[in-house]
Amino acid sequence: MYTTKTSLFWKFVVYAVLIAGAAIFIVPFIYMLLTTFVDNAYTLPRPSEVFSVTPNLDNYETVWNRNNFFRYFLNSLLIAGVSMIGSLFLGALTAYAFARFHFPFKEFLFRMFLFTMMIPVVLAIVPQFTVISNLGLVNTYAGLWLLYIGGGVVGSTFFLRGFFETIPKELEDSIRIDGGGDWRIFWNIYLPLSKPALGTMAIFSFSGTWDEYFVALTIIKDEALRTLPIALMMFQGQHASNWAWIFAASIIALLPVVLIYIIFQKHFVKSGLSEGSMKG
Amino acid sequence: MKTPFSKVLGILSIIALFFVSACSSSDHSSEKSSDGKVTIEYWHTYSDQEEKVLKEKIKPMFEKEHPHIKLKLTRMPYEGLKQQVIAGVSGNAAPDLMRMDIIWVPEFAKMGALKEVSSLDGFDNVKSSVFEGPMATNIFDGKYYGVPVNTNTKIAIYDKKVLDKAGVTEVPKTMEELAAAAKKAKDAGAKGGITIGGANAWGVLPYFWSLGGKLTNEDYTKIDGFVNSPESVKALEQLIQWNKDKILSPTILGGEPGAWDGIKKHEYMMLDDGPWFYSVLMNEEKKKEDPLEYTVRSLIPEGPGGSRSVIGGEDLVIFANSKHPEEAWTFAQWMLTEEPQKLMSETGLIPTNMNAAKDPEFLKVPFVKEYVDQLETALPRTPIPQWSEFEQVFNLNIEKALRGKMSAKEALDDAAKQGEAILKK
Questions:
Q1: Does B186 lie in the same domain as B107?
Q2: pLDDT score, position A268
Q3: DSSP code, position B334
Q4: Are B194 and B289 contained in the same domain?
């Protein structure tokens, strides 16, 4: 009797904490969503106004047709998509090399890799821009990809190397016996077994470049080639901003990230594939 | 498992290759095109309504009058704009012209990023046709590095309903009357009296100056002894006292409701703001009330220092590495003539060209008269390259003084000391 009571009590506490936690995270989002339904939000609407709105898509429609929003949306999709695949693929190859090959200055090189992660974008932007400019890649997506993929490879290498090192080396032997090389090992063993890590990294990589504003604005000079975060910033006026538009635009901008999350999320639960693939 | 992933990868890389070649083959701006036209690139930060006039009226008009020049307009967002300009200048990718905030001009001039315009043909004509205050914001080291393209300032805007409720029948003319009216409004239940946008130079200076405060000497070479003069200390002490008496709206220290919100809901008595208060709020769709109806405009109330508002606005500058400086200068001169200035003023931007600003048509815009009047006594923020740096010190110390962390004298003495060090840089 006593035990069920306490366990019920603790269950209650745990659920209360979880629900409170979820509420803390979801309320600002709901508030933002409701704000997008308000008209003329040049001043931030008050809670009473926000909670009494009738949902409508007026602001979404305005936003979608303003500041080349749709065009920039497609531009961003292309840029973030290619950057994600590029940095994941190159990162996985590099991580494989760091995890399985022996070569001189391996650790030193790896540290140098990490070192580049510590430099803030704003500090590096002028030298980066000069390099891109000397390569003749200003105002091209190639220039932007070079920077995004170059930056992304470091992160994914760091992340995937650790993961690759947990994969038992013995698995390689089955391929070696059949006469397969490193490529086959990489492609048929490491990549499939690293799906959870790759999925996580894909989300990071996509949302990282999808949100990126500063580098994109610096490299891309033509209005037609700009990306979505630039369109978002255009909604902020010098003297006054319509917050409902900014939030509506942000919600639209959020959708692809949510979609990517849903796509790759199912790979998380499939972790531990290598368990049982070896006899103890 | 192999097929889908590699297929996607393959398709994407083909798309990628296509785009790389497509983008790199697109022609660069500022090059002479085949039809013998010169393209000049113009970075601007006009708002939606202003951009519309720029694209649909200004550009065709200019290109018609100057058939050999093509104008390429690029609208830039504000966020990180300064770094964008710096990256552009150092990477030799700046545009030919830019409309930039007046307070940036001396700073970029000092960097060597801007072309000096005072030695160019026609400069004297331009100079004599525009207001003196805005023109002065382009000076660095005795020379001019830009021309003012539009100007603005802030005036006092009162909420009629709050004034009525407080029993104030006449709009305050002096700072004492303003404080008294704010006190009455508070007693009558208003949430705030005098609404200052924030504890920063742009927000505080109209009051600081009007109450007798100073930032520097006449030729902007000395801070010590001016920003901490007895008059300046007294001005800041007055603001601190107002804040203690709660006749300042909470906005000055970031409190709610916001300035516009408080006026729209008839909770604040007065705010100081630029013409955009009207041009934005009047253009709201489905607005409940017309701001022209529920507010009354007046000059910043006079104090010992007079009625001193702060000048804002933008200057047109030509970059030092512009490939077509001559054509850029042609455009800059043209943009400051009466006709284009009038066109832009339709959106509420105040012309710098004196004839355009005094044009009866422009003065018919219902809210501009008070702004044009206020401009006669308004002051520019110190036009020195180190302004942004000094401003940070000033802002921080003002906020500390208002929050009671420093006395007015301590705050301004410290600002003077740091300011002098910044000036020497």
A1: no
A2: 65
A3: H
A4: yes
- Regarding whether B263 and B407 lie in a shared domain, the answer is yes
DSSP string across A124-175 = HHHHHHHHHHHTT-TTSHHHHHHHHHHHHHHHHHHHHHHHHHTS-THHHHHH
Residues of chain A with pLDDT under 70: 1-3, 267-280
Contact call for A234 and B75, based on CB within 8 A: yes
Distance from CA of A251 to the nearest CA of B (A): 20
More reliable by pLDDT, B7 or A177: A177
Give the best residue of B12, B54, B279 to mutate against chain A (max A CB count within 10 A). B12
A90 touching chain B per CB within 8 A = no
Same domain, B286 and B410: yes
Question: Domain range spanning residue B346?
Answer: 38-152+312-380
Q: Name the CATH superfamily, with its identifier, for domain A66-234.
A: MetI-like (1.10.3720.10)
Helix runs in B351-406, H state only: 354-357, 360-363, 368-375, 387-402
Of residues B74, B80, B88, nearest to A214 (C-beta)? B80
CB-based contact (8 Å) between A122 and chain B?
yes
- Please indicate whether, in this complex, the C-beta atoms of B20 and A141 are within 8 angstroms of each other: yes
Q: Are residues B409 and B277 in the same domain?
A: yes
Q: Which residues lie closer than 8 Å to B43 by C-beta, 6 or more apart? A: B74, B75, B76, B95, B97, B98, B99
Tell whether B13 is covered by a domain: no
With a CB-CB cutoff of 8 Å, which residues 38-67 of chain A face chain B?
Answer: 39-40, 42-44, 46, 66
> Would you say residue B33 lies in a domain?
no
Determine, for residues A138 and B24 on separate chains, whether the beta-carbon distance falls below 8 Å.
no
Q: Are B249 and B266 in contact (CB under 8 A)?
A: no
Sorted by where each begins, the domain ranges of chain A are: 2-59, 66-234
Does B25 score more than 50 pLDDT?
no
- CA-closest candidate to residue A82, choices B8, B23, B24: B8
Are β-strands B379-380 and B155-159 bridged in parallel, bridged antiparallel, or unpaired? Answer: unpaired
Q: What is the pLDDT of residue A280?
A: 44
**Chain B nearest CA to A162, separation (Å):** 23
Tell me the pLDDT tens digit for each residue of B89-143. 888 889 999 999 999 999 999 999 999 999 999 999 999 999 888 998 999 999 9
Q: Are residues B87 and B168 in the same domain?
A: no
Query: Is B281 in CB contact (< 8 Å) with chain A?
Result: yes
In a domain, B6, yes or no: no
Number of domains in chain B: 2
Domain membership flag for residue B167: yes
- What is the average per-residue pLDDT within B308-324? 95
Same domain, B337 and B358: yes
One domain, residues B298 and B161:
yes
Please state, in angstroms and as integers, the Cα–Cα distance from residue B32 to each residue in A249, B68, B94, B324, following that order. 38, 10, 17, 10
Residue B319: give its domain's CATH number. 3.40.190.10
**Per-residue pLDDT at B2 exceeds 60:** no
Compare all CA atoms of chain A with the CA of B74 and give the residue at the minimum distance: A223
Rounded to two decimals, what is the model's pTM? 0.82
Report CB contact under 8 Å: B12, A137.
no
